[in-house]
Design brief:
Elements (H helix, E strand, L loop, with lengths): L5 H43 L5 H16 L2 E3 L6 E3 L16
Antiparallel strand pairs: 1-2
The structure holds zinc ion.
């Protein structure tokens, strides 16, 4: 009387493979679900429009401050952009800015 037969051995191997693949599948599903949740959160934050998020408000203030600091004017004659404060002539005769 044998303790185990070929059939029992095959069944055991099959069961081990089934459990192994099951764990692999569960891990993959978990990863996919985590990624989906993260993307949903990011999308919600983007659609929120800064309702109570201090981050977006700080970003907006920073952009506006830097824009005011570097205000530029386009020269109507040559098309070159010059700073409003201390605008200089580009050298052309029709340039409105002082040389
Ligand atoms: Zn000019």
């Amino acid at each position: 009387m044998l303790g185990f037969s070929i059939q029992k051995l095959l069944f055991t191997v099959a069961a081990i493979f089934a459990v192994w693949y099951g764990f692999k599948w569960v891990g993959r599903m978990k990863k996919v679900r985590e990624r989906e949740a993260r993307e949903r959160l990011r999308r919600q934050a983007g659609n929120g429009g800064g309702a109570g998020t201090s981050e977006s408000g700080e970003f907006g203030a920073g952009v506006s401050v830097s824009g005011a600091a570097e205000e530029m004017l386009e020269c109507p004659t040559c098309g070159a952009f010059v700073a409003i404060t201390g605008a200089k002539s580009c050298g052309k005769a029709d340039c409105p800015y002082p040389g």
